[in-house]
Amino acid sequence: MESFKQIENNNVDLISNNDPLDKNRLLIEDLWESVLREECPEDQAERLIQLKELSYSKQIDSDSSKTFKNEIVDIVNSMDLAESIAAARAFSLYFQLVNILEQRVEEDRYIQSFTNKNVQKSPDNLDPFAPALARQNAPVTFRELFYRLRKLNVPPGKLEALLQEMDIRLVFTAHPTEIVRHTIRHKQTRVANLLKKIQVEQFLTKEEKNSLKTQLKEEVRLWWRTDELHQFKPSVLDEVDYALHYFQQVLFNAMPQLRGRIAEALTENYPDVQMPSESFCNFGSWVGSDRDGNPSVTPEITWRTACYQRQLMLERYINATSNLRDQLSVSMQWSQVSSSLLESLETDRVKFPEIYEARATRYRSEPYRLKLSYILEKLRLTQERNNLLANSGWKFDLEGEMDNKNIDKVENLYYKSVNEFTYDLELIKNSLISTDLTCEAVDTLLTQVHIFGFSLASLDIRQESTRHSDAIQELTNYLDLSVPYDQMSEEEKIKWLVDELNTKRPLIPSDFSWTKTTEETFSVFKMVKRLQQEFGSRICHSYVISMSHSASDLLEVLLLAKEMGILDQNSQNSKLLVVPLFETVEDLKRAPEVMEKLFKLDFYRSLLPKVGESFKPLQELMLGYSDSNKDSGFVSSNWEIHRAQIALQNLASRNDILLRLFHGRGGSVGRGGGPAYQAILAQPSGTLKGRIKITEQGEVLASKYSLPELALYNLETVTTAVIQNSLVNNRLDATPEWNQIMSRLAETSRSHYRKLVHENPDLLNFFQEVTPIEEISKLQISSRPARRKKGAKDLSSLRAIPWVFGWTQSRFLLPSWFGVGTALSSELNSDPQQIELFRVLHQRWPFFRMLISKVEMTLSKVDLEVARYYVDTLGSKENKDSFDVIFGVISKEYNLTKSLILQITGKNKLLESDKDLKSSVSLRNKTIIPLGFLQVSLLRRLRDQTRQPPVSECFIDKEESRRAYSRSELLRGALLTINGIAAGMRNTG
């Protein structure tokens, strides 16, 4: 592989399609070094390059590990602040370039797997040693999955029934994990596109290739001179813009391609099976609507978010319709046109005389162009009205604040619903078909309209349960009940709530002055009603209740919905699906009992939406990974979620209710993250039935959706996993002995985890001193505060995201593995022969294999030598003894866990069975070491600065003037190292 310097002087391709990451790495490293030499002073650039070479040239587990790390520490400690900042920026840039390269490699692999059709030609080409689909671990494409299902004699009718019911929902969120600025994301995309152009264009001239190489270096140099850190704390609407970027740039065009790929695969393997609906995979969003702990998400913000989403869709549709008008130049002199289309033109002529006068002469014999001109005008008027609504706010029709004259002219001419737009497009499509014509652009646009509508993504409302009970309490105080609401038992609350739900009289007076929080709680429901009136129920039909503990938590929301007119008890129709979020281990255990109480209420059952051909009621339930892990540790959290799914599905089946499970997965393993394909396969057999809803956390959006083929890969593998899990049951989840073992493992692991995290009085001080948690809270990366309670410093108030973030930065990654070794060891101490059973579980049980693989991957990223340096350097002297004890406990558990994981997998080293992942992690583990030491150095200086006046630093040149660095400068340097380590670890929290 030629270096960047060599490439500059030779007419060769930069990247070979078949080169793995390690070979392509030289390209990135030479580009990085070239930029540093041009942007930094010569001696500084050489020192930074020396740091990287020093860290990469040594093996972490070699005998010389301590020596070379000491050399790195010496270099780091010799740097002044300016050079430290340059080093932090340089390594951050390096890792982000590596991330781009990995995405390109992943994209290429997917393209190759998609284009390789040999597996379809003959049964002989099916690898006889490939694992059975029930034990499949590596992601598969539609083509391979349908081929293998056919070989397994899965009946076409069974597959078709599943496809018709399939409902996959991906919900974008904006939790405090998006550490990279949007500006930098744009630059990363441009770099990726330049690499792709150089790679795939085989017939470029020498001048064209040199021009692309020059652009690549120029883009990285511009990137170097761009501030990586947010200049200000992003607003909620900024976060909306960040999330919607992926729809605009990638997903809008990717979704029709996804449908095309499933169609092609079905044609090859199941030609008689009907395609799933256009919207079998659709999107939701919490960005702008998740108000749990975020006071910045007001009803006005949610309204503006909905208007903004519709604005983006209308812009897309206007552009696509304009292109169609250019394309569909069919003349009536040479082609027939359907009578229904001609009739619609007459109707439009009456409604839009100005358009007719302007376009009729030009398009008098081109009916499609004339029809599309009318469509464009309707879209424009819809856009005009949307802008008026966005500027006027959600209350305009309730308080008469808007001048209705402004919209009189468009009142009957704009598209009142997406169905009207769809109808016009269908007229065009059917007319073309009736004359034996097709138009792919029309089909593509119709698919996009079915998936995205005018709303783009559904906005889920999320709020914490006590906000509703507090509002009900204030209301009942006003009503002066004989027994105050907060003194009622759970059964009494249920009875009172159900009685009020069945009462026709209003409960909430219209002229009473409520407290600010209660008034806002009521306003959310009023805003939702207005949203649904304007946008249709599709824009906002789910209300997620975080920290759901009891049946009354759901009934309280339904009562408020009824009072605001979203629920009609006469017709037993609710336009709001109430979704409980069970987060803690105790709530997960209690979830079946809570839902059983609700399912026994005829009134509640009647309000559930009816779906599918069976027209059965549907209940959506959300399972939280973050808080259960923070509360009880990795094994306990995953096992209780697994058990809850089985119990809830059995309960739903007994009550003839369909279930859609909503998985609140984070980006990191400690919060439910990891490869989506394996996670879906690990769900209990029989619980999906083609339906799943998953959060896509802010930090993983770029890695999944920044490039078109990467987005398609993610969407395709999520879909194949759902199909595979739903059709190919392993029935292993019901094995009593295995369940008993897992229950014991979960309990032992939970006990050991809680003993350290919740019962050790020194742990909180340890976490605050030896991780950058306080500095993380100062990053301008989210509109939501890091703690649930302002000013609180206790562990319970800290959100799960910064909890995981802090442990990741300091290379402990403790939430993702601590307690696993002790739990496994406990079982083996009682019966050493159980190691063979664990190996069987790892081979055959998807859930256990997923558990072990996540722990193995996390352990491979842990670096206790670096972590020890954090403890020794940042820990206070008065806490040294207690901190040494804590580190000893962590170190012992790490070594025990690693040893037992290797015994179970039968490998000598971690990740031995996944060469690509091992290569990636190894590269990062080595090269990230200087950043860790840099971070410690800057954190130490920063924290010293808080205890005394600004300290001047002594430069190597004694004659150079001494300079005192401000706290803000030191904080900036520390935050840059946080940015770099996040890029190197490929996740934050």
Automatic annotation (TrEMBL):
Catalytic residue list: 175, 630
Catalytic activity: oxaloacetate + phosphate = phosphoenolpyruvate + hydrogencarbonate
Enzyme Commission code(s) on record: 4.1.1.31
One Gene Ontology biological process: oxaloacetate metabolic process
Top-tier EC class: lyase
GO cellular component: cytosol
Superkingdom of this protein's organism: Bacteria
Names of required cofactors: Mg(2+)
Family matches, as SUPFAM superfamilies: Phosphoenolpyruvate/pyruvate domain
Pfam families per UniProt: PEPcase
Gene3D superfamilies in alphabetical order: Phosphoenolpyruvate/pyruvate domain
Signal peptide annotation: none
GO molecular function: magnesium ion binding; phosphoenolpyruvate carboxylase activity
Keyword Magnesium included in the entry's annotation: yes
Keywords per UniProt: Carbon dioxide fixation, Lyase, Magnesium, Pyruvate
Family that this chain belongs to: Belongs to the PEPCase type 1 family.
Function: Forms oxaloacetate, a four-carbon dicarboxylic acid source for the tricarboxylic acid cycle.
Subunit composition and interactions: Homotetramer.
Name this protein carries in UniProt: Phosphoenolpyruvate carboxylase
Organism: Prochlorococcus marinus str. GP2
Gene assigned in the entry: ppc
